[in-house]
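Lab notebook page, bench 4
Experiment: in silico fold of construct C2
Operator: M.H.
Input chain length: 567 residues
Purpose: comparison with the prior construct
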Amino acid sequence: MKTQKQQVRRNLLAMTDDELVAGIEYAPVDESFDLQYSRQWLDGAYGFPLSPHIPLHHHGVCSRIVRDHIENLLPEGCALKTEAARHQVSTSNIFALAMYLCREPAGAVGFSLDIKGALRPSDREPYSRRLSDDELSARIRSRDSVSFAWWNDRFYQQLAGVQDKIQVRFAHGRISLASGSLSSTHILKPHSLNPLTPHLVANEHYCMKLAKAIGISVAEVDLKRVPEPVLLVERFDRLHNYDTGHLLHSGWIDRVHVVDGCQALGKHRSRKYQFPDGHGGGHRSVPYGIGFQSLFELAPQFMVPAHGTTALVRWALFNMLVGNSDAHAKNISFFQHRLGIAPAPAYDLVSTRVYEVISEMAMAFGDALTPEEVSSKDLDKFAAEACIPVEELLEEIKAIAPVALEYAYDLAQSDIYTEEERALLLQIAAFVRAQSVHLLGVASTSRRTVRLRPVGEGGGVEREGLEGRGKLRPSERLLANRDELERILLAHNGMKPRLYGPSAEGQDTEETGIHLVIDATPSAALGDLGRIEVRVSKLIGAPVTVTTPATRAEADGELLSVKGKNI
């Protein structure tokens, strides 16, 4: 009589710094993953789902979804192969790789083996060691023989992607390695070893600065020379813990949960390009990967759908302006909150077109696969995929392109770059200029016309105010321009606007103006409130005061929850 072999099962713990989020049971025989959230996490005030496809209150999540979510956290390329070989596991053994390589991945949740005496991340021994420029330079130059991710018997590339990078702490010009209970604050990227992509650090630094000048929310970047150029990218999923809300405390750094486009859609990382089989090769390209329409289908998951859609539109337009053929679904991320998702700052913005390696975009814009091919029909199709009026898309083009024209050459000639780097960046600037002119030409010949007037910094646009402006109170004019208000808040990291005080009671006048309370997003900067005040004041033609609950609490001398009248 045959006896059925008992299946061995092992468990992973999914944890924040100090809380158990979930247990994941793994069955090696059929390679299945079964995830169950902890009761503590479900009952807590700040518990959030790992992704939209792994909801808090689920009745069984598909094993493939859990496996793909974890695999999307792993590094790729040489780093993954080297670490798999070091631990003597297969690159397809996702359970083991998560155990070894996902202690501090992107987002707020790390993974460890469920064993007796397992420590919470916050209870681990803290480790920090400063890196001198000389040591960093030597390691950059020896990357051909020594893995750049491996330092002092510790692995520092617990992030997705192929490019060489390590997780570090960066403050006051000093770079340090950090692990154990300490979280990193930045990602350090050295220059590329590929002779076909020279000056990649300067390329990314320039594109990120250009996007910021246009008004797109981006991760903060610094260019440092040791003397080799390295790019330091501030992690938007790590914040100092004087902020509050959905943040999780660990020392002085909080981890904020994010998911990339593949995780948000519940897809394997092999689907990150819209055409996973590539182009050419004698076959017809089949778009069974993630394209813009798939990303726009996330709208019901956005806490503010219009906010999320606009961010996706601007991300798509900018990547087309600079010729970024690597703008795939793993190069866009979203903050994951308890009630939904919100766009995270843009990152990995580069001009691949300047290297003439590949011209096709990662996602078709309408039916166009290259930026130069974009026509009015493609604008119509893209707007339909985004479920927005094409007039709104034209507004975005007429807001972004002129600012790109204004800043492209000036930023490329910055003294921060070497002469050789500036030569490459001026080529990118020339492409940006040509593509901006092309898009403006396509927009101007569209059947629709949009009357706009430029205002403020960052290339924002606003319609002329309501006719009969003097017949309505300022608060009424604001309510009549809700869509425009949302665009202004989006451009300057604000959300959830409420009228406060007399404005909420309909007692505002032309002299008093309106009082507006907003919530600031995690990427908000000090000057954002002032910029919102200026632009909203121009929109309604009356004085505007903008505060946050925190600033009102300071002014009133007590903590308070500002409810006001929702807009």
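Observations: The longest helix spans residues 419-444. The first strand starts at residue 10 and ends at 15.
Next step: discuss at group meeting.
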